[in-house]
Amino acid sequence: MTYLENKVKFVPTGFRKLLFLNWPLILLLSAIASIGFLMLYSVAGGSFTPWVDPQAKRFVIGMILMLVIAMVPIWFWRNMAGLAYGASLALLVGVELFGTVGMGAQRWIDLGFMRLQPSELTKITLVMALAAYYDWLDIHKTSRLIWVLIPVVLILMPVALVLKQPDLGTAILMLAGGGFIMFLAGVHWLYFAVVIGLGGGLVAAVLNSRGTDWQLIKDYQFRRIDTFLDPASDPLGAGYHITQSKIALGSGGITGRGFMQGTQSRLNFLPEKHTDFIFTTLAEEFGFIGAASLLALYVLVLVFCITSAINNKDRFGALLTLGIGGTFFLFFAVNMSMVMGLAPVVGVPLPLVSYGGSAMLVLLVAFGLVQSAHVHKPR
Amino acid sequence: MKRTSRETDDSTRKIGRRALFLGAIQLGFAGVLAMRMRSMQIDQADQFRMLAEENRINMRLLPPARGLIFDRDGVPIAVNDQNYRIVIVREDAGEVEAVLARLQTLIPLSDEDIQRTLRETERRSSFVPVTVADRLTWEDLARVAVNAPALPGIRPEVGLSRNYPLEDDFAHIVGYVGPVSDYDLSKLNDPDPLLQIPKFQIGKSGVEAKMEHVLRGRAGNTQIEVNALGRVMRELARTEGTAGRNLQLTVNAGLQNYVQARLAGESGAAVVTDVETGDLLAIASVPSFDPNKFVRGISSADYSLLTGNPYRPLANKSVQGVYPPGSTFKMITALAALEAGVIAPEDTVYCPGYSVAGGRRFHCWKRGGHGHMTLNDGLVQSCDVYYYDIAQRTGIEKITAMARKLGLGSAFDIPMSAVNEGLTPTKEWKSTQRGRDWTIGDTLNSSIGQGFVLASPLQLSVMLARIASGNAISPRLVRSVDGIEEPLRSDGPLDINPAYLRAVRKAMYGVSNTQRGTGYGSRVIDDTMLLAGKSGTSQVRNITAAERARGVTRNEDLPWERRDHALFVAFAPYEKPRYSVAVVVEHGGGGSAVCAPIARDILLYAMTGGLPPLEAYPSSQRDRIAEEQRNLPLRNHPATATASSRA
What pTM was estimated for this model as a whole? Predict the structure, then answer.
């Protein structure tokens, strides 16, 4: 509807759309995924099984999905946003009621060919829903309290469900991702100042409540915080992961110990070395050069998203692109902070590198949406 | 929801501004991440690299081979044998129970062993080898090796374990090894990391314990790469340890075996000393035990058999057992009196059968009395009254000083366990230890080796060696360490008039070679191997009046544990002394009857280097001796005994 009201000079159609794809972004994503394959090959001890093979297949499927989604006009996805959000919320409730519990916390639905984690899906549908909401909302109402509360509720519903799983990492990602879009949409900065202020106050209150009658969180949760602040205090217990991960990272040096030469990952000192902690293997085997290169690739993805969004006059497309870019940023920033000991260990994978089906597919689908917005932007 | 183009531009600009702001924050955070990488991977890389190495490299100790122990001629006494054992690795075996059942058909394995192995494999990581059977024969090992394809996860291994091929003969001298215990650790205060190895074997008694520092050697180590579970991936470096040093003892294994065999059946001890050098040629104590049982872990049944035996096999009677020396002490009393100048060798003392001192009668063993006795007569006939008399004139202090000069009251410096220094009493000792004053009766009792005096067979043998050689030799047990000879220890000639020593030796010659001598029955007729000795009988307790009333007058009528100890000391050859021996048989009765023949046989063996030739014995005794020799429980009994032993 509003799309047609833009001054449309030229919209590519048919296969000509392929020429208007954001090809540098596709190349970047492929490069990152390839690094992932290389590392999965290494941690498997120089073998395509058990990780590289399924991961590569899922990457191919994901790339095809991405291209298909990119071909579909962006207005279609905007119209689908509400439905997608509702469906993923229903799935979250569904797994809460019927889902299988695996790996302690993650809940998934078996689709036959893969296991889908609704929480992964929700990260994207939430971004879509918020972008569509702000596209629909009269710009002048953006900062009015009632119109601010609606997206807050939209964010908090899935966050509450995910927290109940419990999956702290995903909840943080959703919360921050949603916050990004609200900020980008133009909600007055005072709201953010108040929320951040209150949040800081709450954290201070929780920490100060330790040992008092009104203690706000459980003792074991306090111990986790202790472990994060000083992993050396418990090197064989809860601090083991983070200590070993830091040793692996640091021992990489500038150039690394060489492909498949990392003793920390080779000798199983690293936990979760094919999933959340795969970055440590990269850093150990390829050193600062390898680790910084991957970081640079991630930053480039972010830059391409921001550039694409700034040049997009379609409000939905721009917000969606920035939201997905922001979520992508949160993925790698939280993961890297975690393995480098800058943040507590919360289960967040390294995007496109960590082994895992849902995360990779969902990310590629999300970048399909980014591509669609890029191809179909008003010119 | 109409939106004007102005509004659209406005919205786009706003998004653009905020996107750039947020993007800047995100890039800033990426910068923080990069800085963190830089700090960890470049600034602190060395530190983390070291931690990674510590992670993966484990040091493991390589126990050194323990030093061997040989006799004076190189006969092995303590060796390290290959110990074949079989281990199982759960992850390779798969069906542990099935594999063990198959193994049971090949080698002797009790159900208990199998249960223990199953428990252990369950408890440990799947790649840790668990010992199934230990100390297997080569045949058993070969059977397992041949059937290896049917026995997945089963692996033969070879280790070293201590073995004492001469079994009982050296149990009391060399002792045995055993796994280090917490008690050992608390007692030893030894920082050697080897002791931290579980079940590391250290000397528990005897030479093995006392020479532990020489025998143990130094640990080597190996650096192995391990993974997070502790599984060994490969060896990175290896430093071999230093094996323990080998010991050569002064003991002659053949003589030792002969002495043990000769004493068999009794509870007693004998020590043979080389009078010129002080080398201990035999240190026997019977009954003995098999030290190998202790190395392997003795069963409680076997152990209670040893502790319950009234002959006390575990006690080393040759150095640990101390006895009243009885009449073998008379040489000391005589030398003390001669040195003190209270009597000359030819002076006589009249023996009426008793002596009165302090208002008490002290009887001579011969109730009718010996008549006039010279030094020679007194020793040959072992007249007690002669010694009562000269002891009163000499005084206990000088007698005790002479006893100490001749080696009594000294533990010496020999690496054996529980060496007892005995007792050489003085007036001061009695008042401080017993709270009573010394009486003249104590002096009289001491003069004939009764009362408080206590001496070990080792001390008596050394005493004889000093009397025979005239030198203050000290006993030596370790001849060399790794081929380097240990120094002989002698304080030079004794501070005793050689004429007096000659007189005492001559009297001892009389004991063994004159009709009236108590050792005449056990004489040697070969002029080149003549003996000079002295018998002794030490009372365990007096026959009580009540017993006398029941008709018990003779020692043989008493229960075994109340009978007198029998002793005999001797040296040979008389003309040119070479060997001295002290024999003690606990509760054996009379020294001349029980111990003199044993002492003679031992000295003859020492002098001839083999079974004593029958020609050395008086002709009337030869048949009995030949019969005895045939029945001796020797380790390698020579088929043609006397013919081959003359060399």
Answer: 0.67
